Amino acid sequence: MKIHNPHDALIKELLASKENAIDFVKQFLPEEISRLILFESITQTKDSFITEELKEYFSDTILRCKLDSSESEIFICILIEHKSKREKFATIQLLTYLGQAYNQQLKNDNMLNLVVPIIFYHGKEEWEVLSSRALFSNLPLELQEYAPDFKFVFSDLVRMNDRDLDKLENEFITATLIAQKYSQDPEELIKNLTRIFNTFSGVKNRNYIKSLIVYVISLVKVDIKDIIDLSNLVKQPVKEMIMSTYDLFIEKGIEKGIEKGIEKGIEKGIEKNTIEIVLRCHTNGFSIENIMLITGLTEQEINDIIQKNTLS
Questions:
Q1: Mean per-residue pLDDT for 197-226?
Q2: pTM, two decimal places
């Protein structure tokens, strides 16, 4: 399966770290909710409540956590909005998602846990998501009482103040949110590259920094001169990581358009050069999603290469 939404893949990897997940929840959940959570219990699950129908609109990252005052658990579901534009009936799609989340729990014979949804939006257009009841505001109040009504958290990343992002104590969240805020505006993203990569004070979690580099390079058109100029303004060892990652893109000709992937066709066999790049990326800790972005191969093709060329 090809990655259609690199934004979602980056958020999943960000929140795989418990420290990052805790700081993210503290940042985006209302204080009256976050104070009820036992933060040390937060874990990211591999589950998804996204149906085939909903894939057009959302992808999800699910955090599971206990409440501080009891053994009860809740799901915090971060929904990355795919269309990056205003969707009038987003709450109806969200209602479908919630129904799927509760039905899936029942089918698995699990205890029913509350689902707290966070819609994560980074589109250019300003968007006020209407409540499901507001969609029926033309009806008499007596009938509006029958409209489904539920709460959700809506985060409009592009409208967040840059100074507030810089004040966040978690450097990984700060860098990620700045990159995603400008992901729809390549010119502004390029202007903010130095700021993004100088956010890191050290080399903790090198693999995630590599993922962020892959994410950014895949979104903007930059030549080698731009990369050299950028790296000269970035502290070591991030500078070295930027250059080595960009070299992989150059080897695959990704600067000509990452979305084109491999043009020769799989039926002619995967190029030897491509296999070497896959193995080098794997050895250096790149995630499957990032290798897909760099090479244009599918997840299955990458796994096949790794299995066939890795000694048991």
A1: 82
A2: 0.79
